[in-house]
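User: I'm writing a short report section on ligand binding and want a predicted complex to refer to. Could you take this sequence and 2-acetamido-2-deoxy-beta-D-glucopyranose and write out the structure as tokens? A short remark afterwards would be nice.
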Amino acid sequence: MFRTCLIILGATLVHCQIKLEKIFEECHLQMPDFEDCLKNGMNQLNPYFREGLPDYGIEPFDPFFAEEVPFKSRMPLFNFNLILRNVTESGWTLSHVSSVKMNHNKNEVAITQSFPDKRLKGWFEFDGNILGAKVKTQGPWNLSLFDYTQTLTVSRKPAGPSAPLSHHPIKVKCNLHTCKNLELHVGNLAGGRSFLENMLDRVINAAWQPGFVILSPIINELVGTAFTDIFNRNFQTFPFSAVFPN
Ligand SMILES: *[C@@H]1O[C@H](CO)[C@@H](O)[C@H](O)[C@H]1NC(C)=O
Ligand SMILES: *[C@@H]1O[C@H](CO)[C@@H](O)[C@H](O)[C@H]1NC(C)=O
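Assistant: Sure. The structure tokens for the complex follow:
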């Protein structure tokens, strides 16, 4: 009985799990449309972002959680240290890959993606100078990005004496392009003075476009850090050669 259950369970799991080899079976490095082939394959993986791909050692990453993301700004009028804590980021399941570009010389792949609705939230600790005023505060925050596009550049040092095959680190950089609208709510922005806070909240959300210059590097850092972490945790043992046989 127990064995039957195990076999049924095993069979169900096998059925539920996607075969990446199958999805990418047409993709060969020598093909002229290799990048499009990867893109089409990636766009079939969305249903698995929530559950992950345990067969390939990939944990669920929608939502993603980051315990701590530090950020520094050293612009003259915006000089601060910001620490984002307990950050969750969701929206990957609805995202769409619009292009994949390989750079073999640099061991890099650039993935451009659009998100109809991406949401982030967490806790922040802020300490610094804004327009000459000293500001030290902390509180909850949340951010929604609508019709948002970003490019993630994933690079991996080739294996060598300084980087053994199983542990050469992956680095992810995020570069956001556009965003049609955003909503940012920051709790305790003015030390609990609710009139001022409500006003600031309205100003931020009505006039976020100029402020986006400040915000976009923070989002880049946040997403880049999150994905450096995701890729390093999940793709170190990823069987690339099984998925992309040459
Ligand atoms: C972050 O989450 C941990 C674990 O749930 C909790 O102990 C900690 O107090 C949280 N930190 C903040 C700043 O919310
Ligand atoms: C977003 O943050 C604001 C300010 O802290 C809070 O009032 C609101 O409930 C939050 N919304 C969500 C969806 O977490």
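A remark for your report: The radius of gyration is 21 Å. Helices lie at 2-16, 20-23, 34-42, 194-206, 208-234, 240-243.
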